[in-house]
């Protein structure tokens, strides 16, 4: 199964929950803390982590298409 992640930088509030939940997929910009997408199509073995990261984003800035 292919997963495609997109992030809305305008919605991101820089909390960092995504980075703590799935650090292989998300990072934070050093200037403003907003999300940086490292892997727009992560491997299947970390899909559950990505789903958790989406669930803990208070700003709903991450979208996943499967």
How do the helices and strands line up, and which of them pair or pack?
Blueprint: E1 4-7, H1 17-21, E2 26-28, E3 35-37, H2 47-55, E4 62-65
Antiparallel strand pairs: 1-4, 2-3
Overall SS class: alpha+beta
What's the domain count? 1
Instruction: State the helix count.
Output: 2
Question: In which range does the helix fraction lie?
Answer: 10-25%
Rounded to the nearest angstrom, the radius of gyration is 11 Å
In round numbers, the mean pLDDT is 96
Task: Walk me through the structure.
- 21% of the residues lie in helices and 21% in strands.
- The protein has a two-stranded antiparallel sheet. The protein has a two-stranded antiparallel sheet with strand order 2-3.
- Strand 2 (26-28) and strand 3 form a beta hairpin.
- The chain has one domain (4-65): Alpha-Beta Plaits (2-Layer Sandwich).
- By secondary structure, the chain is α+β, with helices and mostly antiparallel strands.
- Its cofactor is [3Fe-4S] cluster.
- This is Ferredoxin.
- Ferredoxins are iron-sulfur proteins that transfer electrons in a wide variety of metabolic reactions.
